[in-house]
Write the structure tokens for this entry.
Amino acid sequence: MVANDTAPNNLYRNRGDGTFEDTAVEAGVAVDEAGRARGAMGVAWGDTKNGRGSTLAIGNFSNELKSLYWTDAGDVFLDESPRSGVGPSSLLALTFGVFFFDADLDGRLDLFLANGHVEPTVQQVQKDVAYRQSPILYLNRGEGRFERANGGELSTPLVARGAAFADLEGDGDLDVIVVENGGPAHVYLNRTDDPRKSVRVTLVGTGASNRDAVGARVKASIGALTLTQQVSGGCSYLSAPATLSTSAGPTAQLRSFATFPAAAGSPFGREPKAARKVKQNRRNSVSLHYRLPTAPSRTSRTLRARTSGVNGF
Ligand SMILES: [Ca+2]
Ligand SMILES: [Ca+2]
Ligand SMILES: [Ca+2]
């Protein structure tokens, strides 16, 4: 997925033979419902419905709905931004950094938007749109609904660009790092403060696999919920989280993981034949050394893309 600024987005489907085709128009993610390209910036994927399809979030310009596309099989995407609660409540934001993470460790992926306009004087011509804008944290309430949950330091406006998360002090909850245009980096510490509620997973590719295990997925069973997370080469805007962390509760147990590359006909990877239980250590940290299947060795064709989405201001 390539998010482009004022040009249609690209969704490159892997044909499995070393080539890709752009299916963004057919999939419904190229432009908005009126056929207009949006000012797309950061982009992220997440399993927001706990095992049902995948959700694609894209940060767009102010006065544009932030995209929250949901897809079941990867061929057609529905923009659930309006009904999710995210679209209307973030309309005035100009979103750059965007990612899914489980902020409150309840087993559902929440959404973080880092915002800030590109014109310092924008408010002189649009009184409702500020240059400095507060980040927005949306808590996932299930059934595709998100609830804005800003408080504390997150309510302070800034000119945010890149954003990522990590458990900075190793206490199990995920903290947020935001970089500001012309300002300092901002660190927001998460006060969930309960290490029993999360499991950190580090995947290491071996053999011919890529060492960072990009493309590998981890599936966790959390009570009645299933949460799938995939190691990605990047997301958000000019920044990317590096680890997988899943939640919640001391009884959480990892049971299986699926692999890259995708099987024919499946854009999201092949499910494992056998589920595997993984032991957790006392610090709720798990390292999996896992050999990823390698792609067929064929000559890759150079991908020519109009990638204006990652640009500087
Ligand atoms: Ca959550
Ligand atoms: Ca933490
Ligand atoms: Ca904490």
Remarks:
- The chain is about 5% helix and 30% strand.
- Residues 256-285, 289-313 have pLDDT under 50 and may be disordered.
- Residues 102-104, 106, 108, 110, 139-140 surround calcium ion (ligand 1) (CB under 6 Å).
